[in-house]
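Reopening this ticket.

The earlier resolution said the output was attached, but the attachment link was broken on my side. Pasting everything inline this time so it's all in one place.
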Amino acid sequence: MYSPQLLDHFQNPRNAGDIGDADATAEIENPACGDILRLTLKISDGRIAQARFKAKGCVPAMACASALTELVSGSTLEETRKLRRADIIATVGGLPPASTHAAQLAVDALSAALNRIKA
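Inline output:
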């Protein structure tokens, strides 16, 4: 049902936790299923120097959050703003149609965090 990549991100999450002195923080909830994703970012020289997440929800939600942090770490803010749901889905090796909300939750959290970057 789930790809090996998705299961690996779920069983071995990357960048779990919070950044204490984050430059941007967002917490998004999917009201339909109850999944919650908190994303914190540290910015340095126009790049995502560090990204961490905390998630409560289904296996795909946690895996997509983990994948998101790997995709954005080291990226410029411009590159990060171009990230789409399909990029996350591809990184986790695909999602069942009923689970694509997990990738959307990750993208929504990223968008919200980018909009809250402290100058």
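Reporter confirms the inline version is readable. Residues 45 and 76 are 9 Å apart (CA to CA). The chain has five helices and three strands.
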